[in-house]
Amino acid sequence: MGRGKQRSRVTNPRWQWPSGDEEAPELADFKNVCFEVARQTGGHVESASDGRFPPNFHHVVITFRDRRVAVLCHQALALLALATPPVESSIWPLSFVDDPAIGPTIAALLRVRLLTAAELELDWSRAATHPPAEVAHEEDLKYWRPGSVGDVIFNMWD
Predict the structure, then answer these.
(1) What is the distance between the alpha carbons of residues 138 and 154, in angstroms, rounded to a whole number?
(2) Strand pairing partners for 1?
């Protein structure tokens, strides 16, 4: 969300930032899995990122008859999230969602952790630990003033 937008102050003092010990999937692997899961579940890939900077995540938008889902995969950490794709061409701000029809399958095939919408909406500043450098630098946190864990993990900071 970033500057100005207030998130709910739902917190969890037990939230732990990811360690960064596991490798993030390659862009090609991420796209292949998304295409396959879309095919298997009656959807189709509407768009896919090309891996350019920013953001710090890859994304694929899958369209179904009744919904559109943006699948987000962090570029440096083995983390996955789902979001409602914006109507415009911008991917910012993100509105995180849970989609049990595709999320767990994509996460299992990529061997990554699927973060829930509830985890991503947590107030990042009230987490039990500070985000590791793979996620965010102190200067970025001060400048961008993110509201949630999701804003910190999946960002478009330059």
Answers:
(1) 16
(2) none
What is d(CA 101, CA 55) in angstroms, rounded to the nearest whole number?
26
* Run of H or E residues at 139: helix 138-144
Measured in whole angstroms, how far is the alpha carbon of residue 50 from the centre of its chain?
Answer: 16
Extract the tokens encoding 145.
């003033």
What does the pLDDT look like over 53-93, one tens digit per residue?
778 899 999 999 999 999 999 998 899 999 999 776 665 67
The count of other CB atoms within 10 Å of the CB of residue 127 is 18
pTM: 0.85
Phi, psi of 148 (to 5 degrees): -130, 170
End-to-end CA distance of the chain: 15
Q: What are phi and psi for residue 123, nearest 5 degrees?
A: -70, 115
d(CA 75, CA 99): 21
